Amino acid sequence: MRPPLAPAAGRRQFCARLAGLAGLAAAGALAGDALAQAPVRVIRISARRFVFTPGTVRLKLGEPVQLELTTEDVPMGFSVPDFKVRQDIVPGTTQTLRLQPDKAGEFVFLCDVFCGSGHETMNGSLVVEA
Q1: Contact indicator for 64, 39 with CB cutoff of 8 Å
Q2: What distance in Å separates the CA atoms of residue 130 and residue 126, rounded to the nearest whole number?
Q3: Where does the chain cross the membrane (predicted)?
Q4: What is the pTM of this model?
Q5: Which of 20, 56, 76, 116 is an S-S bond match for 89, by CB 3.0 to 4.6 Å?
């Protein structure tokens, strides 16, 4: 049978354990913040009647990216159906779209807002490398 701890010693051990747990929780929170704020690669894509520049965008599998979309002339759309993402693009503004590809391959991105004769061929290629 263990002898009972003196009341003061019990409180000290309890406080020391509590402080240790609080330290671990704080360290975990900081690590989580560091991951949440990891730099995201920014890729600028401009659209003008019937061309995206660049026409081919290369990504790595699982790499989070932020697409910055602009148009010079008329309202456009940017859509990547295979990743179920899309964004309207309004002249004079920059629209952002976050994407983290979860599959490798070559995928089409396209304008999904009718922008004139030639709209149907306005597309580009998203190449995701494993």
Answers
A1: no
A2: 13
A3: none
A4: 0.70
A5: 76
